[in-house]
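Example 3.2
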Amino acid sequence: MKRHFILITMIALSLALSAEIHSEAGKYGFKFLNIPLNPVSSALAGRGVHSEANIGSWILQPSAAAMYSHQAVAISHSSWLGDTAYTSVVYSNASRNSHIGLALRNLSYGEIDKRDETGLYLGTYSPTDIGVSGNYARRLSPSIYVGANLNVAYQKLDTASALALTADLGITTLTLLKDSRVSFSARNLGFSNKMDEENVKLPHSFDLDVYKGFQFNEQHLGLESGVVFPPDADPQAYIASELTLLERLHLRAGYKFNTDVSGITAGLGFAISGFNLDYGFTPHDDGLGDAHSFGLSYSF
C-alpha cells in the first residue's frame, strides 16, 4: 500500500506546481488541496488570487474575495494524464465588506492496475480525493481584510482511506498605490488520521501574492506575482497577467519559475449576460500530458 500511496501523491504533486525532486517529495498526502481549482487559476500560473473573475480565489487566499461584490456559482473540470480529472463546484457571495464561500472538489485518477508483491495482475482500483470547504472573510479596516477556510478532505486508494480536517488563514492589505494589494496565506494546517496504519502528512503551504492593476480607457490590466513555500519542494515563484477588454474578454497568461513540469500557462474568458466561460491551458513535460481546464460561472 505504501508504494501506491507514494505514487498517487507524486502524481498530484507534479500536477500542482512541482519542481525538481525534493528530499521530502512523496511524503505528503492530500496533494489535491494544492492543485489549481479552475481555468482562471490554471491560466494565471496556478494562482490568480486577486482576479475578480476567479470565483474560487478564496480557496488559495481566504481573505481577498471580501473586497469584491458578487453572488456567483461556478463549475469547472480539468483533465490530463490519461483518465485523471479534477472537478469543482463553488459558491461565492461577496459584499466588499465580507465574503462567504462553499466549495466541493474531487480528483479522480481513473483506473490503476493492482498487483501483488510479485507483480501478478490482480485487477484495477480507482483512487479518489474529495474535499469540502467553507470560507468566511471580513474587512477589518479600510485597508485590511482577513479570512479563514475550514476544509474536510477524504483520500481513498484501494482499500485504505484517510480523513483530514484542515484550516487556511489569510490576510490582504491594500497599499498606498492605487489598485494594488499584498496578501499572505498559511494553508492546509490541521491533522488527519492514519491510512493503512501509516501517518499522512498534510501539504501545508505558505504563500505571498502581490498585485497591481492598471486602467486605461475601457481596458484593465492586472499584474500578479508571488512565491509559494511548499513543504516538499523548493520555493516556487510566479508572475501572471490578466487583460480585460470592454469588461467582457479576459486574456490571461503566466509563468512559474523553479519547476521542470510546466512553466508557461495561458487561457481566456468571455462574459455575457451574467455568464462567464473560461479556459485554461498548462503544458507539461516528461510525458505528464497537457492540462486543459474548462469552467462556467454565473453571477446573480
